[in-house]
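note to self: dont lose this again. the chain is below, predicted strucutre after it. 386 aa total, dont forget to put it in the shared folder this time
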Amino acid sequence: MPVINRIAEFADEVAEWRRDFHTHPELLYDVHRTAGRVKELLESFGVDEVVTGIGRTGVVGVIKGRGPGRTIGLRADMDALPINEKTDSPYKSQTPGKMHACGHDGHTAMLLGAAKYLAETRNFDGTAVLIFQPAEEGGAGGRAMVEDGLMDRFGIEEVFGMHNMPGTPIGHFGVRHGGIMAASDQFDIVIEGSGGHAAMPHNAVDPVTISAQLIMALQTIVSRNVDPMRSAVLSVTMMEAGEAFNIIPQIVKLTGTVRTLDEDVRDLMEERLKSVTKGLVGSLGGTVSITYRRGYPVTVNAPGPSDFAARVAAEVAGEERVNVSAEATMGGEDFSYMLQARPGAYIFLGNGDSSELHSDTYDFNDESIPVGVSYWVKLVETASAD
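---
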């Protein structure tokens, strides 16, 4: 089945909601205006229950079908990013330093569109739980909602998420079994030597040259320790050292990130980073302290729900427009916490030829709205028939 006619009829209204969210971006858990608007719209649609304050500022809408059946959760994120927008759109951000640069405005609007249709038609059995989550961008709002009893309180059996993907054509989907988005970890390495005059390096232990060697050595962890059929990324992204051109500093700080797609490789990367760092720094006469912080876990699609999501996407877009072996991305996603709590699947929706995510010129493509809303609706309706 292609895009649902009724959804195509009110797609412009969904786009207006989206543009309103875009004009008024909010960060992390401070999404009070957005959450308030979501609550207001859900109530206007006549959903059966609207609950606020789940995971601090999350909103949940419950829509019951015609009879008993499965209870599935559909999740959208609401928060923006701390970026100054550089587009010239008439609905650009009115808040300096805040921007919907990842499309969460579109995600929220599409799920609201699904709520409108499902509440209006009730053409399904079971229950649809619509999850509007705060703080995806670094605040672990997904974890906060789970810890607040989301799954048990609403009886969710399976949970599904969706994210727009620049570079993928409008009307196309991508999904895969297993890891689809990476675990996102952070490390700080503080190397201490003994400072001195830059003209007399033999009288110092230079942490700058140690750190230079260490940066290169860390790259061999992926190339020489990780199975080449598996994926990992280690990037040193910040280096802090020195105060003058003629002084060897005493301390250098390196900061970076490690991204992996399964927990075994994640464990290996942490162990090898610590081992290589301690060994190399010690062999060159320095001392080191390492802080390794695990962030969002791997976003892991369960096989059954992944196949189900692909089948529903094919009903909406056609099989030729659904890539069931989509490439995983090394970006992080806190929907991973929901997938740890319940089986489910995360799918990509084409955003066309747009700027990249987290770019100051990015904009969600409203042409994808009818496709995304239709996917959400058919997910619920098809689940009730299975």
